[in-house]
Amino acid sequence: MAQFKETAVAERRKETRYDTGNCTAEILLTEPEMILRGNVVDVSRSGLRLRTHCHLEAQRMLTVRFGAIVVAGRVRYCTLNQDNTFDTGVLICDINLA
Predict the structure, then answer these.
(1) Alpha-carbon span 13 to 10, nearest angstrom
(2) Which CB contacts under 8 angstroms, 24+ apart, belong to 45-50?
(3) 3-state class of 45 per DSSP?
(4) Cα distance from N-terminal residue to C-terminal residue, the chain
(5) pLDDT surpasses 50 at 5
(6) Which long-range contacts (CB under 8 A, 24 or more apart) does 32-41 make?
(7) 24 and 39 in contact (C-beta within 8 Å)?
(8) How many Å apart are CA 94 and CA 26, to the nearest integer?
């Protein structure tokens, strides 16, 4: 089970973010249907940040599976990192246990 610790980065966030230790995630996309691998970098009460090797379009719906958690969400932003990975902010719409 992942150990969550508070992210110490000063940001303009309303909610505290918790580091996940880069949990491996399966990301399910629709239209077109695709399955990606990535990492959950951190989580908050209303969202999570994914790191992937491809760009995800804003407003796209997706499902993220990590551990026993299944999150349905909407992409809010996607930014390119210096190492050519992408950080994607996801607004959580629903959470279930697998």
Answers:
(1) 8
(2) 45/15, 46/15, 46/91, 46/92, 47/15, 47/73, 47/76, 47/89, 47/90, 47/91, 47/92, 48/73, 48/89, 48/90, 48/92, 49/17, 49/87, 49/88, 49/89, 49/90, 50/25, 50/87, 50/88, 50/90
(3) coil
(4) 14
(5) no
(6) 40/64, 40/66, 41/87
(7) yes
(8) 16
**Which of 13, 4, 23 has its CA nearest to residue 66?**
23
Q: What pTM value is reported for the model?
A: 0.83
15-73 pLDDT, tens digit each: 898 888 889 999 999 888 999 999 999 999 999 999 999 999 999 999 999 999 999 99
The token duo for 1 is 């089970």
Question: Helix, strand, or coil here: 57?
Answer: coil
Q: Is-contact 60 28, C-beta < 8 A?
A: no
* 87: β partners: 51, 79
Retrieve residue 43's tokens.
């989580």
Q: What is the pLDDT of residue 65?
A: 96
